[in-house]
Write a structure and sequence with these properties.
This protein has nine helices and six strands, in the order βαααααβαβαβαββα. By secondary structure, it is an alpha/beta fold.
């Protein structure tokens, strides 16, 4: 079998690990509201937009807020998150990422990034990957957050390929669903019991090579 024409990578949890930063920021908001918030709750916010995430936290506490109050919470959460990620360096790139992306490029596979995060440009610049991807689609350019397939469909469109020619790398349940809804193969990065809908699951990108891509189920 041949290689895919393109690989589209999620950012958080695939390229860099910002899960703890998100958790600390969201938990600050939840604590302020008196809403119990665990790492498991945080898992369900992966790949979800900022506004939708805050809405879910409010729903956990059965709390209603005005649109203005909701936006204030999301702004303050993002301020906390930005303070944490501003200290990121190239050392924060996850294991295997740089070597695998370079392997793809060397073998003619286009690479793009598809993330719901509006902070994508900040993170990519902080870790030195802002010139790596041929196309970057982030939360500043999409209307719908994952599990809607918009971010991945736009990535494929910008690269000039059909969805069937692309493979997505995702660490979130919502991201796997978005990839499948886009008509793309999906490799989960993380735990198989969480990402069971992916075509294949690997613990990290050091556990994958070109043959893996050629023989995706």
């Amino acid at each position: 079998m041949s290689l895919p024409k393109a690989c589209i990578f999620d950012l958080d949890g695939v390229i860099v690990d910002t899960v703890d930063a998100h958790y600390k920021a969201w938990k600050t908001m939840a604590d302020e509201l008196g809403v119990p918030f665990t790492m498991e709750d945080n898992e369900h916010l992966k790949g979800v937009s900022r506004v939708d995430s805050m809405s879910r936290i409010l729903a956990l506490g059965e709390i209603e807020k005005t649109e203005e109050e909701l936006m204030d919470y999301t702004r303050r959460k993002n301020d906390i998150y930005l303070e944490i990620i501003s200290k990121m360096t190239p050392d924060d790139i996850l294991v295997g990422v740089k070597d695998f992306i370079q392997l793809l490029i060397d073998n003619g596979v286009e690479v793009a990034l598809g993330s719901s995060s509006k902070n994508t440009p900040t993170i990519l610049k902080a870790v030195g990957l802002d010139k790596t991807f041929k196309a970057v689609v982030d939360g500043n350019q999409v209307t719908h957050s994952k599990p809607h397939p918009e971010v991945f469909l736009k990535g494929a469109e910008r690269l000039g390929f059909e969805p069937k020619d692309c493979v997505v790398f995702e660490d979130a349940i919502s991201g796997v669903e978005a990839a499948k809804r886009a008509g793309m193969k999906c490799i989960g990065v993380g735990e198989a019991e969480v990402l069971f809908d992916a075509d294949l699951v690997v613990p990290d990108l050091s556990n994958i090579n070109l043959d893996t891509l050629r023989h995706l189920p």
